[in-house]
Amino acid sequence: MSSMLTRRAVAGVLAAVAFAAPAAAQQYPARPITVIVPFAAGGPTDVLARLVTQRMGAILGQTMVVENVGGAGGTIGVTRGARAAPDGYVLTVGHLGTHVSNIALYRQLQYNPQTDFEPIAPLGVNPMILVAKRGAPAAVPAFLAHVRQNQARLSYGHAGIGSASHTAALMFHSMTQTKVQDVAYRGTGPALNDLVAGQFDYMIDQALNLLEQIQAGNVVAVGVTTPQRLPQLPNLPTLAESGLTGFDVAIWNTLFAPKGTPPAILERLNQVANQALAEPALRTRLTELAVQIPSSDELRLGAFRDKHAADIARWVPVIREAGATAE
Ligand code: ASP
């Protein structure tokens, strides 16, 4: 009799354990999800994150709330994201800056971009454009001559040490062997406002932040950072074709969860990202913004790990060689 009871009790416990994990995942998300954007509102990471997570939230039936936690090249926001409870309610958007360059440039980085995070899905790759304040020479050779001749007087903007805009500028200054004073912002959203106002001379930033201001004539577009020109600006030459041979920087942006997030939640979020990125309206908008949408192969859960590792191997030595370090 008592052994019957024990057996039943054990079976009950086993059943409860077996059902516990799927039940938690099935209820997920039971409340809004915070998405940490480690740069200022209105910048490229913010805009891309909002476009995609708004659709993801609609599919999930819960709001995904973007929280902008800018500063120190994204390290403040990403550190917070790494330390969040791994329950699927605090996610982080990282990019080539926060999750690669920062390894090279910060001696005291408080997070490990690979081991502290689980990639959920890449959100898109965006080429960059070198833009300058109105009145600057637009042709690449003339612009390069301008920078070489006036480097002691010019200044360039970026979103903090290790940010995408800083990384691209490091490459630019190392290839042109120039040294120019920098101005750091919490994101290239506010930096672009200052460039339009003529507060500094140039910046290299993701195309999605710049197209409107270029088209409005508020900044001068000098060149594209990828080997291919942009379909949106077919007359704008690449830096590579204009003398900076081999210049090739494009910025991936990826949604991450903290390490230890239950697999069922990662799978759900990955599936929803796939669904959102398959929607024609979102695809059209992203394409207008020169965002290259990841393929379904790249969007497989976990597929991003290899790309991440390859980029760390490719970029960290180059950036260390080119850059100054931060604490
Ligand atoms: N992605 C940053 C932003 O959204 C800028 C950067 O990394 O350069 O402001």
Written account of the structure:
The protein has 327 residues and is α/β, with parallel strands linked by helices. It has 2 domains: 7-23 and 31-125 and 252-322, Bordetella uptake gene, domain 1 (D-Maltodextrin-Binding Protein, domain 2); 127-242, 3-Layer(aba) Sandwich (D-Maltodextrin-Binding Protein, domain 2). Helix content is 45%, strand content 19%. The protein is built from 11 helices and 9 strands. It has helices at residues 2-27, 44-60, 75-83, 97-105, 140-150, 164-176, 188-196, 207-215, 263-277, 280-288, 304-322, and strands at 33-37, 64-68, 90-95, 117-133, 155-158, 181-184, 202-206, 219-224, 250-258. Strands 1, 2, 3, 4, 7, 8 and 9 form a 7-stranded mixed beta sheet that branches. Strands 5-6 form a two-stranded parallel sheet. Helix 6 (164-176) links the parallel strand 5 and strand 6. Helix 2 packs across helix 9 and helix 4 runs parallel beside helix 11 (304-322). It is globular, with a radius of gyration of 22 Å.
